[in-house]
Amino acid sequence: MTLIPAIDIRQGNSVRLKQGKIKHETIYSNDPVSVAKIWASCGAKCIHVVDLDGAFSGESKNKKIIKRICNGVDIPVHVGGGIRSLEKISEIFSLGAAKVVLGTIAVSNIQIVKEFIKEYGKERIIVAVDAKDEKVAVNGWNDITSIDVLRLVDNLKEIGVQNILYTDISRDGMFYGPDYKVIKKLLKKDIKIIASGGIRTEDDVVKLKQCGVFGAIVGSALYKEEFNLKRSIETAEM
User: Fold this and answer.
1) How many Å apart are CA 99 and CA 125, to the nearest integer?
2) Measured by CB atoms within 10 angstroms of the end CB, which terminus of the chain is less buried, N or C?
3) CA distances from 14 to 7, 69, 92, 177 (A)
4) Phi, psi (degrees; rounded to nearest 5) at 113
5) What is the tens place of the pLDDT at every residue in 136-176?
6) In degrees rounded to 5, what are phi and psi of residue 178?
7) Torsion of CA 165, 169, 171, 173, to 10 degrees
8) What would the 3-class secondary structure string for 99-148 be?
9) Is 53 an annotated catalytic residue?
10) Is position 130 annotated as part of the catalytic site?
């Protein structure tokens, strides 16, 4: 399993939100590039970057920072947040991203995701399926739809998606532990699952590995003294 540290960027800062809400924002650094270098020095094999300004408004304000992150580390960078067109994907790849993470567009226009896959290949496209109570959330987690998580994943698999990033938004930044119940259901779909939301300890890393997920994203726990990223990466890769 690959343990992937996350960097969420809003207004140029490295931040963490609780349950995706701006009113529950904590700013950890005004230099996300330095944060990326720290995670890389701990042995991370890739970094997950979310442009929160892009996710909330559909318009990125952090392109220069994303480019500096991509150029500043020698590991792949996955970038998401407001990527809703072929033009935007091309732009993110031009910044140096190894993979793009799609969210809202996979719900609002699933057929265009098929076009993205045809243009760039299955391995460079990750689809983020964000949910609350097993219902899909869109538009920066602001809107909860009536779409069932498992049904959406079935539809995505049908058009050729290979990589799913699943987040239970009620657990994100809350240290409740991952949503093992839904994760185990998703693993039956025979598709690569990256789990996100709720990781708090190295024990969570061990449990996710035992479940059989392809990868796991860790966010808020990175800033807790009791979470050792270097050791947790080693545990995940054993």
Assistant:
1) 6
2) C
3) 6, 12, 19, 22
4) -65, -35
5) 988 766 778 899 999 999 999 999 999 999 998 876 555 66
6) -65, 165
7) 90
8) EEEECHHHHHCHHHHHHHHHHHCHHHEEEEEEEECCEEEECCCCEEEEEE
9) no
10) yes
Q: State how far the Cα of 211 lies from the Cα of 237, in Å rounded to an integer.
A: 14
Task: Round to whole Å and give the CA distance between 78 and 126.
Answer: 9
3-state DSSP of the chain: CEEEEEEEEECCEEEEEECCEEEEEEEEECCHHHHHHHHHHCCCCCEEEEEHHHHHHCCCCCHHHHHHHHHHCCCCEEEECCCCCHHHHHHHHHCCCCEEEECHHHHHCHHHHHHHHHHHCHHHEEEEEEEECCEEEECCCCEEEEEEHHHHHHHHHHCCCCEEEEEECCCCCCCCCCCHHHHHHHHCCCCEEEEECCCCCHHHHHHHHHHCCCEEEECHHHHCCCCCHHHHHHHHHC
Q: What is the pLDDT of residues 28-40, one digit of tens each?
A: 899 999 999 999 9
Nearest to 187 by CA among 158, 209, 202: 209
**Catalytic entry in 130, 172, 179, 204:** 130
Q: Which of 8, 168, 172, 204 does the annotation list as catalytic?
A: 8
Tokens, residue 77: 């960078």
Q: Is the pLDDT of residue 215 over 80?
A: yes
